[in-house]
Amino acid sequence: MPELPEVETVARGLALKMEGRTLVRVAQHRPNLRTPFPAGFVQRLTGRRVAGIGRRAKYVLVRLDNDDTLLIHLGMSGSMVVSRGPAGAPGAHDHVVMETDDGAVVTFNDPRRFGLMDLIADGQVDSHPLLAKLGPEPLGNEFDADTLSARLAGKMTPIKAALLDQRVVAGLGNIYVCEALFRSGISPERSAASVAGRDAQRLVPAIRDVLTEAIAAGGSSLRDYVQSDGELGYFQHSFAVYGREGEGCPGCDCDINRTGGVRRLVQAGRSSFFCARRQR
Fold first, then answer.
1. Is 187 helix (H, G, I), strand (E, B) or coil?
2. Number of structural domains in the chain
3. Does 222 have pLDDT greater than 90?
4. Interacting residues of 151 by C-beta distance below 8 A, sequence separation 6+
5. What is the largest CA-CA distance in the chain?
6. How do residues 227-236 score in pLDDT, each as one tens digit?
7. Omega before 86 cis (within 30°)?
8. In Å, what is the CA distance from 206 to each residue of 98, 144, 181, 195?
9. d(CA 102, CA 2)
10. Got the DSSP string for 20-72?
11. Which residues have a Cβ under 8 Å from the Cβ of 265 and sit 6 or more positions away?
12. In this structure, are 265 and 169 located in the same domain?
């Protein structure tokens, strides 16, 4: 599933092509994705000008000139690719196609149909059921060591699981939590409540740095993810531990035959990759 850097990359790419443009044609090719499309979906979008595009957690938010907002979640396999018109016949998994007044064609493709689109009425974005309980944005000013410590206080779950809880901090997923915990020297098996004070002071900048670097690299392409121009991201080439079971981590000087290198364990059904020597 695309995580924060991938969604941020898509949102920025869409903004370059769609902001200030009018949606002159909208086609919907099925009644539902993970959830049904809202009533009057095509009619409510057609003729609207895109006032701005941003992101909240793992959601793309497209603000329209009537102050309604199109909410988009890419799901497990969704992509939004911009090409030049006119639009041809849709592919088997091209579920929504939007054309702008300058000839850009934006196609939402989702083979597994775990994504979704919704329209949020003016003033109801923050109270939308998918957004209302989200934690702070990890790249926002409100996210700091004190905030993280407070949100982790009393939680006996492993720190890895706590960071994946979108109510604790928004937008983090498996890849970047593994990488941030490695950089901060914190074991994914530590109890969340124990990550406070100096540990939180190390973890917060590690999270910020990993996300910032991943955004600059266009995200990570492991399976289906592509940027809005159809290109792959390349942060996967910079992974320190994720997906590198049995390998040495950056700067490794240990005997891999003895230590086993990067380890993998399963936590709540998700793979955690870590260095037992460096992460405590």
1. coil
2. 2
3. no
4. 135, 168, 169
5. 65
6. 878 887 889 9
7. yes
8. 38, 11, 8, 13
9. 29
10. T-BEEEEEE-SSBSSSBPPTTHHHHHTT-BEEEEEEETTEEEEEETTS-EEEE
11. 188, 189, 271, 272, 274
12. yes
pLDDT of 224: 67
Amino acid at 13: G
Regarding whether 174 and 257 lie in a shared domain, the answer is yes
Domain that holds residue 57: 4-120
Confidence band, pLDDT 50/70/90 cuts, at residue 219: very high
Q: Residue 193 belongs to a domain with what CATH number?
A: 1.10.8.50
Residue 158 resides in a domain: yes
Q: Which of 74, 104, 120 is the last residue of a domain?
A: 120
pTM: 0.94
Look up tokens 């941020």; give the residue: 8
Both 164 and 243 in one domain: the answer is yes
15-25 pLDDT, tens per residue? 999 999 999 99
Residues taking part in catalysis: 2-3, 58, 270
